[in-house]
């Protein structure tokens, strides 16, 4: 049996971290029948983690392979990558720790998925490694968690249901809880850290994109305009909405750019918003966001934010992360409002312009529970499985892609729907 045949199907790297633990837990069910293992820097920590999950899942994991690999040791990373077909990378912030793992995977001919919500990291990986990944037949797909599977594949789903040409999509994220907030954290420290460095280095994006895309997209009309910074979303029973600062828009726009470049398809314009039930919540979030944005600009401010996460988020971010109870009771819904033209009005070329304003609308939604960790880890494991099983339906023979571009023609949406997600049309087409 040659080395390739002996490879494990999947390895979860960073398995003893917060996200890694939940990925193991979801992996027990989703990876059943496959050969998989866990990896990290400390064998002792990994053993403790496996024992903990074993007890929680009431499942014997004594035969689970444990592999040691250190981010500071390139050889150990390559040896780990050579042991599997797909590597699930849970070691963030990816700005600091992602590239050596991507590099090792490409060298080893191993596919790579992660849950990064960091546009600078994702776009730089595409710029620097897309060609190498293509040459090696390796798929590297980031944003495979709550950032940004629901938004990116939700946009793909909306277009599939539209039966025409979609001009624009506006997304509205709602996060609610079945129980009152217990005063504990909502975010784990790693997510908080990624957000701080992401905002601090946001100025890197423009030059990155200039290098990534040598030509600009045509100026498609009508342009999707920004709504007021605070506005009422009438179709959400009067909830208040503000621009969503996450990576959803940048991820969706990369997928749309791929469809334009590779398939000559008119790209969908997209704006992302987050909705709150009361104006008081909006004002509280706005206050934290303003303080956060100012402090991120200065080294001392960043140090303070990193040192005292609970203080600056009123307890919403911490090293301990959210409790099991609060995670299990959290629910998310992303509403998608799409506008475009009926199938009878299709254009000959993707660069052609419509002569009339959009004539057709649709509202769809993607929903699920435990967005931060449960849904994230389910989406992450299913993303890895899709590469294993359906790489023939993915673009080209490899490369660095966002999830919408990578999985649009696969059964990933169907698999997500079998595992806790709902993709649905909520308003009939007009």
From TrEMBL:
Pfam families: Sacchrp_dh_NADP. Keywords: Membrane, Transmembrane, Transmembrane helix. The chain crosses the membrane at residues 279-300. One of its GO terms (cellular component) is plasma membrane. InterPro entries: NAD(P)-bd_dom_sf, Saccharopine_DH-like_oxidrdct, Sacchrp_dh_NADP-bd. One of its GO terms (biological process) is glycolipid biosynthetic process. Residues 10-141 form the Saccharopine dehydrogenase NADP binding domain. It comes from the Eukaryota. Belongs to the saccharopine dehydrogenase family. This is Sacchrp_dh_NADP domain-containing protein.
């Amino acid at each position: 049996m040659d080395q390739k045949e002996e490879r494990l199907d999947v390895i979860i790297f960073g398995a003893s971290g917060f996200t890694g633990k939940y990925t193991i837990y979801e992996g027990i069910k989703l990876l059943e029948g496959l050969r998989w293992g866990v990896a990290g820097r400390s064998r002792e920590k990994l053993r403790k983690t496996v024992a903990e999950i074993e007890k929680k899942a009431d499942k014997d994991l004594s035969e689970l392979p444990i592999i040691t690999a250190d981010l500071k040791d390139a050889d150990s990373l390559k040896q780990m990558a050579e042991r599997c077909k797909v590597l699930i990378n849970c070691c963030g912030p990816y700005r600091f720790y992602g590239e050596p793992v991507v590099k090792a995977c490409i060298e080893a001919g191993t596919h790579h998925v992660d849950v990064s919500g960091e546009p600078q990291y994702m776009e730089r990986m595409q710029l620097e490694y897309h060609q190498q990944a293509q040459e090696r037949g390796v798929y590297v797909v980031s944003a495979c968690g709550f950032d940004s599977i629901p938004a990116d594949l939700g946009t793909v789903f909306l277009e599939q249901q539209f039966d025409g040409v979609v001009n624009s999509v506006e997304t509205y994220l709602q996060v609610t809880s079945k129980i009152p907030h217990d005063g504990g954290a909502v975010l784990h420290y790693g997510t908080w850290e990624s957000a701080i460095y992401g905002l601090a280095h946001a100025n890197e994006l423009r030059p990155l994109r200039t290098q990534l895309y040598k030509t600009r997209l045509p100026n498609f009309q009508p342009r999707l305009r920004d709504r007021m910074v605070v506005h009422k979303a009438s179709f959400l029973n009067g909830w208040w909405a503000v621009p969503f600062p996450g990576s959803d828009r940048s991820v969706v726009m990369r997928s749309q750019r791929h469809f334009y470049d590779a398939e000559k398809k008119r790209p969908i314009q997209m704006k992302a918003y987050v909705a709150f039930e009361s104006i008081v919540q909006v004002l509280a979030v706005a206050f934290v966001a303003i303080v956060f944005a100012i402090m991120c600009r200065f080294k001392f401010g960043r140090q303070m934010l990193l040192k005292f996460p609970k203080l600056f988020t009123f307890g919403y971010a911490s090293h301990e992360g959210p409790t099991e109870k609060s995670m299990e009771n959290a629910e998310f819904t992303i509403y998608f409002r799409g506008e475009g033209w009926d199938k009878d009005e299709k254009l000959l070329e993707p660069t052609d312009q419509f002569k009339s304003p959009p004539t057709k609308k649709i509202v769809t939604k993607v929903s699920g529970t435990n967005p931060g960790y449960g849904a994230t880890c389910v989406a992450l494991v299913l993303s890895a499985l899709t590469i294993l099983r359906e790489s023939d339906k993915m673009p080209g023979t490899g490369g660095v892609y966002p999830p919408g571009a990578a999985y649009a023609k696969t059964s990933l949406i169907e698999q997500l729907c079998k595992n806790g997600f709902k993709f649905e049309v909520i308003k009939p087409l007009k």
